[in-house]
């Protein structure tokens, strides 16, 4: 893989969210990976360059997804914003937890612009609980 192609992939990862599609037939070197996290950039570069990194890296290599871009993933990305606000984004869902304890839940496939908060919907209680538990595990690890 050329450095130019890798930089294009990194640029695309940094600019797009998972609900957006890439239609770039004139640019076949552009790949889009469904869930991105800039913490994954260093492990990906270490993997692509086939060099040893430190024993513990924050993030995961995206090389398996680069090799098979159509494959599905259950990866989740934690985002911290403002003071004590946190979000977990997966391919389908975004759970946002605010410092005051309130939450928002969005189905990114059905509602890519996050206009319909499902956090209070009884139909989505199981999903909210599953994402909340996952966020608690991931966020503790990253604190």
Describe the structure.
This protein is 31% helix and 14% strand. A hairpin with a 3-residue loop joins strand 2 (85-89) and strand 3 (93-97). It has 2 domains: 3-67, no CATH class; 77-142, Arylsulfatase, C-terminal domain. The chain is globular and about 50 Å long. It has helices at residues 3-15, 41-49, 63-67, 125-142, and strands at 77-81, 85-89, 93-97, 103-107. It is of the alpha+beta class and 143 residues long. The relative contact order is 0.12. It has a 4-stranded antiparallel β-sheet, covered by helices on one side.
How would you summarize the topology of this molecule?
Blueprint: H1 3-15, H2 41-49, H3 63-67, E1 77-81, E2 85-89, E3 93-97, E4 103-107, H4 125-142
Antiparallel strand pairs: 1-2, 2-3, 3-4
Structural key phrases:
about 140 residues; alpha+beta; Arylsulfatase, C-terminal domain; 4-stranded antiparallel sheet
CATH class descriptor name of the largest domain:
Alpha Beta
Shape field: globular
Count of separate structural domains:
2
Q: How would a textbook summarize the main sheet? A: 4 strands, antiparallel
Radius of gyration over alpha carbons?
17 Å
Order of helices and strands: HHHEEEEH
**CATH architecture name of the largest domain:** 2-Layer Sandwich
Alpha plus pi helix count: 4
Count the E strands.
4
Straight-line N-to-C gap: 34 Å
β content, as a range?
5-15%
Overall residue-averaged pLDDT value: 75
Low-confidence stretches: 15-35
Structural class: alpha+beta
Q: Helix proportion of residues, in percent?
A: 25-40%
Instruction: Classify the fold: give the CATH topology of the largest domain.
Output: Arylsulfatase, C-terminal domain
Spatial strand sequence of the major β-sheet: 1-2-3-4
